[in-house]
From TrEMBL:
UniProt modified residues of type 4-aspartylphosphate: D51
UniProt keyword Membrane present: no
GO CC field: cytosol; protein-DNA complex
Protein name: DNA-binding response regulator
GO BP, sorted A to Z: regulation of DNA-templated transcription
Keyword hit for RNA-binding: no
InterPro entries: CheY-like_superfamily, OmpR/PhoB-type_DNA-bd, Sig_transdc_resp-reg_receiver, WalR-like, WH-like_DNA-bd_sf
Keyword terms of this UniProt record: DNA-binding, Phosphoprotein
């Protein structure tokens, strides 16, 4: 799952990002509205964690632009203003969810996960294929009843493959969905993680390479 955190309080933004990364999410962080607008124009995000009162470009304007563009990204809006009227306003301009500050991180993470499952076609919290069971809430994986210990990156890549439901996924798409914006597009990181997943998932082989296309589960 690919997340953009747009929050002008640097400490809070980095704290949110670090926490979400522990849920095997790829997270980019920006600290003003203009940077958020630039990132949204370049990358496909599942969820935007958006501070309403961003400098440079207000969060309301970002919501309006995304609504007009028809973007698939889901938006959870954060704000210090907690009145019912302001929550209604935030939802009315395009936000999918609204969380007043201060908030419990566990609640934020749960809401982000729920929005991520709704970002495109509805996706269940437990994904299954080829004997693999991936619980995206508990961050646990098994194959044929055997627990499979996965690193956060391995978990993220396996989730993307399972979401594809048997369709091939390109290395570029895996980089886009499971790594953040700092990832080198020419890196061998995808191949390395795929090889580790194959070894951990065991026989019979379930991740297949389609030459010139990508990887298919």
């Amino acid at each position: 799952m690919r997340i953009l955190v747009a929050e002008d309080e640097w400490i809070l933004a980095d704290w949110i990002a670090e926490g979400l990364r522990k849920f095997a999410m790829a997270v980019d962080v920006v600290y003003d509205g203009e940077a958020a607008d630039e990132h949204l124009a370049v990358h496909d995000y599942d969820v935007l964690v958006l501070d309403r009162d961003l400098p440079g470009m207000h969060g309301d304007e970002i919501c309006r632009r995304l609504a007009l563009s028809g973007a698939d990204v889901r938006i959870i809006m954060l704000t210090a203003a907690a009145s019912v009227r302001e929550r209604i306003e935030g939802l009315g301009i395009g936000a999918d969810d609204y969380l007043p500050k201060p908030f419990d991180f566990g609640e934020l993470a749960a809401r982000v996960q729920a929005l991520g499952r709704r970002s495109l076609a509805p996706v269940p919290p437990v994904l299954q294929r080829a004997g693999i069971v991936l619980d995206t809430y508990r961050r646990q994986a098994s194959r044929d009843g055997r627990f499979v210990p996965l690193s956060l990156k391995e978990f993220a890549v396996l989730e993307v493959l399972l979401r594809a439901d048997g369709a091939p996924v390109s290395a570029e798409k895996l980089l886009e969905q499971a790594w953040d914006a700092s990832a080198d597009p020419f890196t061998t990181a995808v191949r390395v993680v795929i090889n580790r997943l194959r070894a951990k998932l065991g026989d019979p082989p379930c991740i297949h390479t389609e030459a010139g296309v990508g990887y298919r589960l």
